[in-house]
Design goal:
Length: about 700
Amino acid sequence: MSYQIPANLASELEELDIYIKRHLAGELDAATLKVRRVPFGCYEQRRDGSYMVRIRTTGGALTPAQLGAMAVIADRYGSNSIHITTRQEFQLHDIALTNVVQSMRELLEFGLAARGGGGNTVRNILLSPGAGVDPSEVFDPSEVFDPSPYAFALTTRLIAESGSWLLPRKFKIAFANSPADTAYARFNDLGFIAELRDGQPGFRVYVAGGLGTKPQVGHLFQQFIPADDVYAVTTAVKRLFDQNGNRKNRNAARLRFLWNSLGEERFRQLYEEQLQLVRAEGAAPLALEPAPAQVIPPHLAPAHDDSPGYHQWRQRYVEPQQQPGLFSILIPIFLGNLNNADATRLARFLAPFGGDVLRATFGQNLRLRNIPEALLPNVFEVVREIGELASAPRLLGNSIACTGADTCRLGICRPKGALAAVVDTLTHSTLDLNQIPDFRLNLSGCPNTCGQHMLADLGFYGNVARRGQQMFPAYAVVAGARVAEGEARLAQPIDRVSARDLPRFVEDVLKLWLQKQHLHASFADYIDAEGTQDIRALADRYRNIPAPEADRSYYCDWASDQMFSLAGKSAGECSAGLFDLIEVDLKHAKRLREELLAAEPASRQETEAALSSIALCSARALLITRGIEAPTDTAVFENFRKHFIESGLIDSNFEPVIATAQQSDTLAPIRQQVFSLLDAVDALYRSMDNSLRFTADSFSGGLQHT
């Protein structure tokens, strides 16, 4: 089972090749090339001149031959590993621009495409990793419904349509095989959850869910549709989005923003109009491929293993399928990075098992299927050589971290290094992690949710904190997500902790949960009852950060010996994670102003100190949007004057306030102007979009404070 590649993809690759050659010859600017390459799943990485190719694999399904081909192509043109994403895709990293198209041509030879791996397109369609083998999709002893053929057929149909490549924003679809929603259907633009009604296969339909910035749980849209209506419903929603989505502001362009702006009634009205048009066109139902033939065990001599290590591995990572005598096996791949040599070894071993033996999971891991029980020891011999996590508790094997600032241009922190430190701390702890095997521990390098922190039991996303003028890497803490249908919700914001303290903090939280889990049905219930207060109390232990001269490590991110810095980033590269840092300055300045306005007259010295702090925080707050880290107060005021007053973003009437504060002269006579400066900066901040761009040319904010 897989998708069919449209016939015109080869010619489209030739067009992309022409664009790249024109760019390399100086005939085409980088921005124009970006528009062409990103819809082909080609992204520039953090290191200039280095590119990533994201490969479409519907539901994470691929054959052993395709896995082996990826490893060969990665070795030939890129890095020494293949990366498994949290959306059941595969990425090849560190490819030179000159080799991008050739790598795609070679992928095409093995039935793999990167088209739609990025950009405003129909993205990789998700599928429950256990679809077709998971006992939970057996609705009663005689009724089984595997949604896999619908995900593959829908991919084939949509990627052949020109209307799938120029949408207002990315369009994500998921198919879940049961109400447990192991495909996160409620957190995608369009989600289908399998159901059998009176023996008829069909789906409940959800729309307008999504993660990223301003995440949202999807809305129940259709209680039940016959399975034959999947294409018509998808097309109607896609066309509604295409014709009504926000194409001016990409930060408010996803389907969930359209739902919110139109309202449910109008959204449904537009959908019904599109659905009628689709039906009038006579669109045929999806053409499903036949189910794979019955698995025939390969001619391998069964190995024998009665060791404690084998039995522990089997307990942690092996599960029975709905098919008697066959088993599904999770192969944990730390950080989703599968070494090319290991990929080749695994592909060769799996080749005799047929094509339907391998899927990628949402935890950046691989899942084998259709393995006869007698051959489980043979699998163990192979997988224990692939990574150390094969002998680790399942919680560690399922933990997620996106690539973060290591390679991603949006990354703020380095969650891969942080998770490695967490795993090391937990491995050397006395905690019995086998008691909580399905605990979801997820890290993202910024708020954009590539590490699925909003779907975690305990999640973290990178942001920036400051001690005085010195920045240090930190993580916002979220917890208590629920994913099953009927109770789905996003993780709740709890607190913040420094990156350096993260491993000990995670250990503390898990230790407390192990002590209290007998009192609560789930970790989410614990968060609702007492966990939020417990976690905040734990975060308080790590509130005081030492000065750089006392402990430099707090100011270096994990897996880096450089002082943490955001200097040199272009506008929009850091995005939403910096809002927290801006808010710290603005909130502090506003609090000082409120105290001056509400309290009895303070001493002259206290008043001057407060006014100086208000001026400093106002001037400093937005410097980071220009990639500036000012090491001194003087540098703060000079850079504010240059980048905000002289540029016209802030009224030049505030120049006397800046000059007075910079010279440490008395500010009391111009106290109202100091307050108005804060208002002007705050107004400018509120005008920014999620990429830290200002939507207004200037904001004076007025010179009178009321």
